[in-house]
Structures are given as structure tokens and as C-alpha cells.
TrEMBL record:
UniProt superkingdom: Bacteria
DUF306 domain ranges (all copies): 163-278
Organism: Bartonella tamiae Th239
InterPro entries from the UniProt entry: DUF306_Meta_HslJ, HslJ-like_sf, Lipoprotein_YbaY-like, Pilotin
Name of the protein in question: DUF306 domain-containing protein
PANTHER family: GLYCOPROTEIN/POLYSACCHARIDE METABOLISM, GLYCOPROTEIN_POLYSACCHARIDE METABOLISM
Length: 285
């Protein structure tokens, strides 16, 4: 065989061998990386106690919600890995149990428990600090301390019966929810303004649309449970596109609102002229 042909064949075989070696090495590295970063959970359940910082009489519909979250990104957002909830009664300490079925943990991630007590959509207690957990040890039970949120502990819960005199926090618009961490409010004053229609009372309204502040007014007929918002005047801040679109939906909702009603835990529901639901709000504590 001529020298050039033997050289070409040798180079071809060598290249193929090197390529095979590189492929095997890459696959091995991928397997090792996968095995080193992901592990099946070593714990099947998480148990713990909820300690309330104040002894208060809970209203009906109170629920405890406990969440397991990934806190690896220190600035958030924190991904919820698992959640459990239970109806509760007034008591100083509560026990909880969270069953972990097919949950997979990252070895280099950090995890913690957080909890809250809600009445409907109204927040009553919350854990100011998250409780770290170990995914390799069954160090149960954990203790989670909850603090009362902005209420007078000497008073019982009073369900709102009027729109005016409250700051309302928007929880849902057009059955589409709202963006996490966005804050939309409607603050209706208690001061009455004269109107040409004696069946309505006019109140000034201010609030936050998620990016911009706004001001407007609302006409309310409490006997008929009807209300109408005037076109809001808003600031012009630069907003993220998603927040800006949500703010447009909020303004649209205000303009379509025609009537309202409350449920038994004080949530405010707004409806359009055809009686269709368009928004849900809760009183800000």
C-alpha cells in the first residue's frame, strides 16, 4: 500500500477512535452530573407544629396552609414544591403532616417550610420567617411560628357590609387571576359627596393599578347594590408589558362594573350590567 494511503487510513481510524472516546466521556460526564445534582427524596413525610403568637378566636372557614418551597434563589421567587391544607379551630398549637410521594430534590438546593392561616382569601396569620428542612434527615417535628396580620386581637372579625370606608385588594379580574406579587387596590373613602341623583352616593377613590397610581370616584346605591366608577386618572410610569396589560384589564373592569355583592366572609364581588362576575376583592388588613 502506498505511503499516502496508509497515512490516510491511519488518520481516519485515529479520528474515529478519538470521537468515540469523546462521546463516551461526554455521556459519562452527563450521567455523573445528573446523579450528583438530583436525588430521590429520603423522607416520605414532613410533620410539624404550628405555633400562633396570639390566642384569638378564629372565624368560620379558617384554613391552615403549609408549603414546602425551594429557597435556593435568595431573592425569590420561591418555587412551591408541595402544599397541604386543613380546616382549623381556635387553638394555641396545630399539628400538620405533609406527604411527599413523587417529589425529587436537587442536592445543591435549599428547602424550607412556610405557612399561613386564611379565612377565605383573607390572610390572618403568616410565618415571617421560613423554617429550613433537611432532605436527608427525618428531623421531625418541625416548628413553624405564625404572626397575626394587622388585626386588633381584642376584637372579633367584622365582615364588611359596605364598599365605602375600606381599602380593597383585587384578587381576580375576569376569572384570569392576577400576576403573582402584583398589588392592585381600590381605596374608597367614607366621605360622602353630593350628587344630582338622590339614589346614589358619591365617594372618592384612589388606589394602585399594579404599576401606576390612579384616582377616580364611584357612585353607590346600597339599596340596589349597584355602583359605577368614573374614568380613572392615572400616572404614566414605565411598566413591564405583562403588568401594563393587566392594568388595562383592571381599568376595563372598573368601567364595566355595574353591581356588587358580598359573601359570608366579607369578599366583594363585582359584576357587569348583565350580572356576570368580573372581579373578586378582599378588604386589606
Amino acid at each position: 500500500m502506498p505511503m499516502k494511503r496508509r497515512l490516510f487510513v491511519g488518520m481516519t481510524i485515529g479520528t474515529a477512535a478519538l470521537t468515540s472516546l469523546l462521546v463516551v466521556s461526554v455521556v459519562a460526564m452527563a450521567i455523573n452530573t445528573t446523579n450528583s445534582s438530583i436525588t430521590e427524596t429520603k423522607i416520605s413525610t414532613i410533620k410539624g407544629n404550628i405555633i400562633l403568637n396570639q390566642d384569638v378566636e378564629m372565624p368560620a372557614h379558617a384554613h391552615l396552609i403549609v408549603q414546602l418551597v425551594d429557597i435556593s434563589q435568595k431573592e425569590g421567587p420561591f418555587q412551591v414544591i408541595s402544599e397541604t391544607s386543613m380546616a382549623i379551630n381556635t387553638q394555641k398549637a396545630l399539628d400538620f403532616k405533609m406527604v411527599l410521594n413523587t417529589i425529587t430534590f436537587e442536592k445543591d438546593h435549599d428547602y424550607a417550610l412556610q405557612a399561613r392561616i386564611v379565612v377565605g382569601d383573607i390572610l390572618w396569620f403568616i410565618s415571617d420567617e421560613r423554617t429550613p428542612i433537611s432532605i436527608f434527615e427525618t428531623a421531625n417535628p418541625y416548628k413553624i411560628y405564625l404572626n397575626l396580620v394587622g388585626q386588633n386581637i381584642s376584637s372579633k372579625w367584622n365582615v364588611p357590609t359596605s364598599v365605602n370606608g375600606h381599602e380593597w385588594q383585587v384578587e381576580d379580574i375576569f376569572n384570569a387571576g392576577i400576576i403573582d406579587s402584583s398589588h392592585i387596590t381600590i381605596n374608597v373613602t367614607n366621605e360622602k359627596n353630593l350628587t344630582s341623583d338622590p339614589t346614589f352616593v358619591k365617594y372618592n377613590v384612589t388606589g394602585y393599578g399594579g404599576c401606576n397610581r390612579y384616582s377616580t370616584s364611584v357612585m353607590i346605591n346600597e339599596d340596589e347594590k349597584t355602583l359605577k366608577f368614573a374614568t380613572p386618572a392615572m400616572t404614566f410610569m414605565a411598566c413591564a408589558e405583562a403588568i401594563s396589560q393587566q392594568e388595562d384589564r383592571f381599568t376595563e373592569m372598573l368601567m364595566k362594573t355595574n353591581s356588587y355583592n358580598f359573601d359570608d366572609i366579607g369578599r366583594l364581588f363585582l359584576k357587569d350590567s348583565k350580572g356576570n362576575y368580573i372581579a373578586r376583592l378582599i378588604p386589606h388588613l
